[in-house]
């Protein structure tokens, strides 16, 4: 069994005050889940560091530095960080959850090219 399969959180499982609703994706350092903040009654995205990296002090330090750096930014195109914490041996970052909407559905005009943004 691979590390990511062994580390995977289960739908309905709690991680601190967050109840796991769905797995959104997986990357090099861990996975991202949609979760429900049971204290504030809102959906959040949880970026969870893979268990294999929680034993690597340098990876944990970089993970925490990412949260600290992002939390100092305030811009409409950057997620709001709610917290960086640890629960049940899992390091995680809780951020605002943004529902993805396909541009073609959200707009009745085709997407513009990046070059047209400069004009």
Largest sheet: 6 strands, antiparallel
Shape call? globular
Number of strands: 6
CATH superfamily grouping: Phosphorylase Kinase, domain 1
CATH class membership: Alpha Beta
Task: Give the total of domains.
Answer: 1
Please provide a written account of the structure.
By secondary structure, the chain is α+β, with helices and mostly antiparallel strands. It has a single domain (3-117), classed as Phosphorylase Kinase, domain 1, CATH 3.30.200. 27% of the residues lie in helices and 34% in strands. A six-stranded antiparallel sheet has the order 1-2-3-4-6-5. A hairpin with a 2-residue loop joins strand 5 (81-87) and strand 6 (90-96).
Structure summarized in a few sentences:
This protein has one domain (3-117): Phosphorylase Kinase, domain 1, CATH 3.30.200.
Secondary-structure blueprint:
Blueprint: H1 3-7, E1 14-15, E2 18-26, E3 30-37, E4 42-49, H2 51-54, H3 57-71, E5 81-87, E6 90-96, H4 103-106, H5 114-117
Antiparallel strand pairs: 1-2, 2-3, 3-4, 4-6, 5-6
Q: Could you list some keywords that capture this structure?
A:
119 residues, Phosphorylase Kinase, domain 1
């Amino acid at each position: 069994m691979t590390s990511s399969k062994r580390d995977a959180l289960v739908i309905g499982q709690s991680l601190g005050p967050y109840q796991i609703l769905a797995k959104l994706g997986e990357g090099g350092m861990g996975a991202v889940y949609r979760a429900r903040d049971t204290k504030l009654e809102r959906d959040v995205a949880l970026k969870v560091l893979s268990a294999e990296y929680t034993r690597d002090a340098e990876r944990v330090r970089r993970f925490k530095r990412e949260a600290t750096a992002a939390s100092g930014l305030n811009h409409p195109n950057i997620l709001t960080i709610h917290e960086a914490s640890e629960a049940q041996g899992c390091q995680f970052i809780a951020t605002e959850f943004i529902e993805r909407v396909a541009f073609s559905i959200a707009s009745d005009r085709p997407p513009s090219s990046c070059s047209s943004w400069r004009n």
